[in-house]
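Design review, sub-item: ligand-bound model
Attendees: FS, YL, KQ
YL presented the inputs for the F0G complex:
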Amino acid sequence: MDKKYMAEPYKIKMVEPIAVTTREQREIAIKKAGYNTFLLDSDDVYIDLLTDSGTNAMSENQWAGLMLGDEAYAGSKNFKHLQQAVQELYGFKYVIPTHQGRGAENILSKIMIKPGDYVPGNMYFTTTRAHQELNGAAFRDVIIDEAHDPELNIAFKGNIDLNKLEKLIDEVGAEKIPYICLAVTVNLAGGQPVSMANMKAVYELAQKHGIKVMMDATRCVENACFIKHREAGYANKTILDIVKEMFSYADGCTMSGKKDGIVNIGGFLALNDGDLYQKAANLVVVYEGMPSYGGMSGRDMEALARGMYESMDYNYIAHRLAQVEYLGEKLDQAGIPIVKPVGGHAVFLDARRFYPHIPQNQFPAQMLAAQLYIESGVRSMERGIVSAGRDKDGNHHYPKLELVRLTIPRRVYTYSHLDVVAEAVIELYKKRDQVKGLRFVYEPPVLRFFTARFEPN
Ligand code: F0G
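KQ shared the predicted structure:
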């Protein structure tokens, strides 16, 4: 039986035509792209589930805000609006706009990390870890073991394992840990949330040892909605109350506005400590721009500020989570191996179980993403061994999770688009035995998944 769905809390004012292609055209396109969905032209894509990053549909209120851009080099009024949004909604004192999330990660890593340090986090994110490592730190994964099991259905699979964290502190000493990097929700674990109780406990432990907690706030509103739905005592709280409480357990955050800020570009670093803010303000002028615009134009800061207020609307965020869940349940009912529970921003296909005959070093998830494109024009993203990259000694990281991410942009696609996606995946699953793995023909040294090229074995 088809799942009853939660209808959209918005209507469509403008439409964007999308490409309808033939299988032959798609076979040529994916070959040209080196079997890497990042290298496809968007003109060749029918339904684009590569990412939820910067692919959001802005509201009429945000578009109206763009017309009020104050493009002053210094002291733009839009900066004040952004600052007000960060202070009122997230509760941090200082804000430094950056061109996107990784701009904030760069600055945070540079002002806090010394060579030889350790940064514990609840599973790595690609750009976050890259900045930590480029500044001389070693990343240590302290997420609960359950997060690495795609079949285990528990409410807060993004939680930090306090024993692992305490063990690391004992082992290397608190002075070698500049901060704990706590992500909400955890992207590479499948969009899994962190409970409020866990955030509180991590903060208390960190404070006991004089260590700071820096959150990756990128998908904080999704996390807040999961807390409202799943954690005792939060059902009657507003999303705003929950977000504010979450951030009360942090000393600062990096934010990619391209996700829960519901914009196409932008981000920021937020901090409570005045000295750290001074250091960040000194660096942002080198890498991004003046502290009052960083990497953003006035109009973009306005759209982000407005998007942040909109993101606190329960109907908006509950519908978003419902859309993702709808796709997940459709696939699950058809017996497709997916990560459970379904996360906040995406449904993740488990490529290990989808293509059990393809060894991990022949990139089963990369191949599954390519096959899905050929089958249907749906673009997805590998989140497995290719994304995980190599260690210092040049060996592949072998992540336990070998996934393909079907990422749902905010307010962009309808339930019928999601039906098309589900049908294509189900079709591919029927033909799974015929598919072989891939090998590299070009492998870039860092963040290889963006531009690597492959050919079939
Ligand atoms: N942190 C998380 C959890 C992210 O998912 C991303 C981006 C970033 C930081 C970096 O932010 O892209 O604005 O520089 N994730 C995108 C994705 C790329 O597709 O998941 P950015």
